[in-house]
Design goal:
Distance between the termini: 34 Å
Organism: Streptomyces capitiformicae
GO molecular function, one term: acyltransferase activity, transferring groups other than amino-acyl groups
Protein name: Acyltransferase 3 domain-containing protein
Strand order of the largest sheet: 1-2
Radius of gyration: 20 Å
InterPro entries: Acyl_transf_3_dom
Number of domains: 1
Keywords: Membrane, Transmembrane, Transmembrane helix
Low-confidence stretches: none
Oligomer: single chain
Largest sheet: 2 strands, antiparallel
Structural class: mainly alpha
């Protein structure tokens, strides 16, 4: 597996862990009157707080994102791009989806 493929795998795995982790910490409970509440298991069952150690994915996101950005910068510089142009393109690619 190439290094870029491995970094893509790590990014995807981190996303999967975030989804699973959030799914696991929420319990939907129907009350006596039929109302549904969402209990946070980390507060209700304190020993589950230790399980969060296996879901520490932010360092993984930062490392994979830094690797991807570094490769993008190297390719842009090799094509004759400037730092300002590279930052502008990256910002546009990140901000447009977030704005929508």
């Amino acid at each position: 597996m190439s290094r870029d493929r491995y970094v893509d795998f790590l990014r995807a795995w981190a996303i999967v862990l975030v989804v699973i982790g959030h799914w696991l910490i929420t319990a939907l409970v129907r009350g006596p009157g039929g109302e549904i509440t969402a209990l946070e298991l980390l507060a209700v069952i304190p020993w589950t707080q230790w399980l969060t150690l296996g879901f520490q994915v932010m360092p993984l996101f930062f490392l994979a994102g830094g690797h991807a950005a570094g490769g993008s910068w190297v390719r842009a510089r090799a094509a004759g791009g400037t730092a300002a142009g590279w930052v502008a393109r990256r910002a546009l690619r990140l901000l447009l989806p977030a704005g929508v």
